[in-house]
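Much of what follows relies on a compact textual record of a protein's fold. Each token is a code from a learned vocabulary of local backbone shapes. The record below shows the convention in full.
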Amino acid sequence: MDYNGIMMEIMIKLMLAVLLGAVIGVERGYKSKPAGMKTHSLVALGAALFVIVGGYVFYDFTGTQVSFDPSRVIAAVVAGVGFIGGGLIIKRQFEVEGLTTAAGLWIAAAIGASVGIGFYLPAIFTALLTLLVFHGVGLFEDKFVRKRK
């Protein structure tokens, strides 16, 4: 593939990561949670870019294909997003807040990383499952599991 083709593929990956991040951030924004569409989009975008750059960096600097472990890049993304998510979790008296939003950011990073390595269908399917969990499981939980204040 030529340089322009590679750059076009990278831009499409980044746009898909933003779109999928926004899709799962819709529900959080609708519920007025601290991290909505913008935050989820940026997390997915950043994760995708780190994975993409991690895949190309060795080739660009050495001029040859070098064997490396791409899971290290993904592990660093997971740790970084875990740090951000940890800052969202707050304990107030006997209730914990922000846990679902932190989990949403974590999954947005996973979706972005999946797009970054080219796993488009699993990323799209995961975004849809995330919406189902955010909205569908939340409705089920509200109706049958526990009553909220």
